[in-house]
TrEMBL record:
Keywords: Membrane, Transmembrane, Transmembrane helix. It comes from the Bacteria. The chain crosses the membrane at residues 36-54, 60-80, 87-109, 115-135. Residues 1-10 have a biased composition (Low complexity). The keyword Transmembrane helix applies. The keyword Protein transport does not apply. Residues 1-23 are annotated as: Disordered. This is ATP synthase protein I.
Amino acid sequence: MTTPSDSSSPAPAPSGPTPSKYDDHRRPLFTALRNGAYALGVVAVVSVIAWSFAEGSPGFWGALIGGGYVLLTAVSVLATSGQSIGTIGAVVLGGWLVKVVLVLLILMLLDPLTFYHRGAMVITLIVALVVCIIAEMVGVLRTRTTYVTPVSGNTGE
């Protein structure tokens, strides 16, 4: 017979259900980030190759600049995923504002320079944005997550 003071007795089993991978509310964000990164990689490689053949070195640099910082929104949401919805909204909105200002500053700085092709940069940027948004959306929509987590001891009566 085992007594409570016996140190060789096994630890009691947890009373509630064990969490599964579907209980992690950050899972859709990780999937969106992964899908967006893959999509951005494909767009960047295809665009750099295509614009390099079409316009030479300026096309290469334009496509490289255009495929820049598209995934920052998904990263900012993922970084704040443990915070309140107000904090997440403020970070996403603030991040969007910072990105817009950054794009305008980069465009102003690059305007007098001639080492890149403007069309390559703009088209690559637009295509990268659209493709990444679609890839992230598909990642979030197809990821299975738990909507309701049962509370232990609650029988629903």
